[in-house]
Write a structure and sequence with these properties.
GO molecular function, one term: thymidine phosphorylase activity
Bound molecules: uracil
Number of helices: 16
Number of domains: 3
Strand content: 5-15%
Family: Belongs to the thymidine/pyrimidine-nucleoside phosphorylase family.
Organism: Amycolatopsis antarctica
Strand order of the largest sheet: 6-9-11-7
Protein name: Thymidine phosphorylase
Subunit structure: Homodimer.
């Protein structure tokens, strides 16, 4: 085949057959198809799309570009993937919770880039914790603890690694077949038998509308089915941050609260909903994740999971050198707290990175002292900005411009006020 013919075919709206897809991905991985040719093909796919069968084949070719882990465990393996959000620390309580209920959870994760945080960056705020594990270590920990959250190995879907970096700089990220195949190639290569997708919708997510999110979810579920992975998807809100903590150490602290039976109601509810879905896929529908949280079994598994990777679950987490409080400008109900604005602000404070390889500040982030729907009086603290570099505060405040809105309202019965007779 010639790359130019494959590009021309897609440019003119043809579907790519299996042989051409296999060839172009393999040749691109080997450097035979040039970056500029793959750029043109990605743009042609962006504009023309791919049907379900093409997308499944494209995913298969990306899986075949690298190794496929075969994580054998005595327990059923099941994983979760979130399309990314602000304050989305759910993996932290979820992996040990599902393991405590009898499944094995191999959660190969990434670092944050842009306004969404990275699971590995959050966990690295725990003193001693190590993200890089060998395949043998992953297998051993899955058997002994049941849950492992670690860095994806270099060998998984290398075609996607190259293509994703290219899409990032060629305005070809926001394409349903390209996003769906990118995510699913990594998840299928990881070898879990079941996969639950948490597809985020709203300002803080890739997909801004429910319709787009549904389309992405359907594409990913079809790819999973085509590759023999039991896959299901939930669409969940990302218009406002999840929970009350956004950043690194602050999100670990909030996850530990959830694992100890407390924590914000939205984080608990989403953790339990995803756990139930995962346990269903793993063939354990009678497991009781709420009991595993309440009894402390999930917290015990968390401690073992952190220790197995060199971390000290009891160690004090890093604290910020500087805290800046943002106060309510009006009296009334806090009506919106924009996820994107809060995500960018946390990033500016040092919780995220602007380039691959940069260091993050573990203590940086935001605590939300009020959440939408709650009554506040002018001057009440709403957000606490945490950073080690106070120079970053003005940029964070600029990102928050317009992110908080209020509706004038009487202090109508607050949700958590005591009932009045
Ligand atoms: N996450 C991925 O891994 N790939 C995409 O294309 C988008 C989000």
């Amino acid at each position: 085949f010639a790359a130019v013919d494959v590009i021309r075919a897609k440019r003119d709206g043809a579907r790519l057959d299996d042989e051409r897809i296999a060839w172009v991905i393999d040749a691109y991985t080997r450097g035979v198809v040039a970056e500029e040719q793959m750029s043109a093909l990605a743009m042609a796919i962006f504009l023309r799309g791919m049907d379900a069968a093409e997308t499944a084949r494209w995913t298969g070719a990306m899986i075949d570009s690298g190794e496929r882990l075969s994580l054998t465990s005595a327990r059923p393996t099941v994983d979760k993937h979130s399309t990314g959000g602000v304050g989305d620390k759910i993996t932290l309580p979820l992996a040990p919770l599902v393991a405590a209920c009898g499944a094995a959870v191999p959660q190969l994760s990434g670092r944050g880039l842009g306004h969404t945080g990275g699971t590995l960056d959050k966990l690295e705020s725990i003193p001693g914790w190590r993200a890089e594990l060998s395949t043998a270590e992953i297998g051993k920990q899955l058997d002994e603890v049941g849950a492992v959250v670690c860095a994806a190995t270099e060998g998984l879907a290398p075609a996607d690694r190259k293509l994703y970096a290219l899409r990032d700089v060629t305005a070809t990220v926001e394409s349903v077949p390209l996003i769906a195949s990118s995510i699913m190639s990594k998840k299928i290569a990881e070898g879990a038998a079941g996969l639950v997708l948490d597809v985020k919708v709203g300002s803080g997510a890739f997909m801004k509308t429910a319709e787009q999110a549904r389309e992405l979810a359907a594409a990913m579920v079809e790819i999973g089915a085509a590759h023999g992975v039991r896959t299901s998807a939930l669409l969940t809100d990302m218009s406002t941050p999840l929970g009350r903590a956004v950043g690194n150490a602050v999100e670990v602290a909030e996850s530990v609260e959830v694992l100890r039976g407390g924590g914000p109601a939205d984080v608990v509810a989403l953790t339990l909903a995803l756990a139930r879905e995962m346990l269903d896929l793993a063939g354990l529908p009678d497991a009781d994740p709420a009991e595993a949280l309440a009894s402390g079994r999930a917290y015990d598994t968390w401690c073992r999971m952190i220790r197995a990777q060199g971390g000290d679950p009891e160690a004090e987490l890093p604290r910020p050198r500087h805290v800046h409080t943002v106060s309510a400008t009006e009296t009334g109900t806090l009506s919106t707290m924009d996820a994107y604005g809060v995500g960018v602000a946390a990033w500016r404070l040092g919780a995220g990175r602007a380039r691959r390889g940069e260091r993050v500040q573990y203590a940086a982030g935001i605590r939300c002292l009020a959440k939408p729907g709650e009554y506040v009086e002018a001057g009440d603290p709403v957000l606490e900005l945490h950073t080690d570099t106070p120079d970053a505060v003005p940029a964070a405040l600029a990102a928050l411009d317009g992110a908080l809105t209020y509706t004038p309202a009487d202090p109508s019965p607050a949700k958590d006020s005591l009932p009045v007779k």
